[in-house]
Amino acid sequence: MYRRAFLYGLFGIFAAVLSGFLSLSAALAAPVTVPTELSPGEQYRLAFVTSTLRDATSSDIADYNAFVQGVADSQAELAALGATWTAIASTATVDARDNVAEPDLVRIYLLNDTKLANDDEDLFTGAIHEAPNITEAGSVFNTNVWTGTDASGFGVPGQTLGSGLVEFGHSADSGSFGDWLSFGVGFDIEVLPFYAISSVLTVEAPIVVPAPGAAGLFVVALLVFAHTRRTVG
């Protein structure tokens, strides 16, 4: 009997440790939606690679914008931002650099609190700061990604989305050759993820709750005392 109780105890400890580890892992993978280096009032944008896949057979950029918007909205932390999300991708009629352009040139961050680029122009003018391999859930996903785009943000002639053969990038790349956007060519019926970028966001000032004064503390103490007497009685 004691041996069985001992084994049950060990099992309970193991289960508690495993549960704590899984909770910590989940917390570590949670998306960071407000960059910690920014101050209230500063503007920024977010980017991620989708964890879900689709083909590249459509020649309408609206289809891909709707796809990445749906992926973002499926993540509670991103849906709460109320942002508009667009695909970093090109069709025969819309270049990626135009599809993602915003009037405000602000810093772009991945969902693990690292800076991807100084602004949307910086995305297409050389090496980005980090590999864009973080998903909407904050996890790492190294994979080929449909773009239809060259390193400068323009559609690759004859290899844009919906062209049969389509250019893809690789999310593990952050080098100066732009391989994150232009890495190879595949048939558009294959399913791959897409890159997404948000509209401009603003860091909100934290809500400060004033501490109660002496009179407030006295009232709270009286309420606690009254509740304690009622419970004991």
Sheet having the most strands: 6 strands, mixed
- The low-confidence parts are 1-27
The CATH class of the domain at 43-202 is identified as Alpha Beta
- Topology-level CATH name of the domain at 43-202: Mannose-Binding Protein A, Chain A
Q: Tell me the radius of gyration.
A: 24 Å
Q: Proportion of β residues?
A: 15-25%
Q: Please give the number of β-strands.
A: 9
Coarse structural class? alpha+beta
What does it look like?
By secondary structure, the chain is α+β, with helices and mostly antiparallel strands. The protein has a domain at 43-202: Roll (Mannose-Binding Protein A, Chain A), CATH 3.10.100. Helix content is 29%, strand content 15%. It is built from five helices and nine strands, in the order αβααβαβββββββα. The strands form two sheets. Strands 1, 2, 3, 4, 8 and 9 form a six-stranded mixed beta sheet that branches. Strand 3 (108-110) and strand 4 form a beta hairpin. It is globular and about 50 Å long. The two termini are 42 Å apart. The model is unreliable at 1-27 (pLDDT under 50).
